[in-house]
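Subject: Sanity check before I submit

Could someone independently write out the structure tokens for this chain? I want to compare against mine line by line before I put it in a report. The sequence has 117 residues.
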Amino acid sequence: MKKLTFIALVLLSAFFLGSHAAAASCTATVNCNNGCIASVEECPPPYQPYSFSCSAPSQTFQCSGTTTCTSTSTYVECDGNRQTCTQQCFQGSTYADCGSKHLTCSQCQSHQISCLL
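---
Independent answer below. Compare away.
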């Protein structure tokens, strides 16, 4: 009986030590405050005078680490893994990019996207 109790205590201790070792010891968070809008006010010739825009919300990154966590206004890094805030919106005379969305005057012309005349 004593041997069984001892084995149970050893297993229970190993469980708690193992689960404690696997737990993260730090976290880092950044709100990039980089929400943006890109627009084309009027498509130039040879396109009709369409106008369109897109937007992207601010990026937020969070990470957890076991040794080091760093947070600045532009990135977070945990145990050497970095996530960096990026510029998300770009615009030209015939296109607007927001995050992974790419809109063009030719898409308006071919009615692939909805645009204002």
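---
OP: Matches mine. For the report I'm noting this point. The chain has a mean pLDDT of 85.
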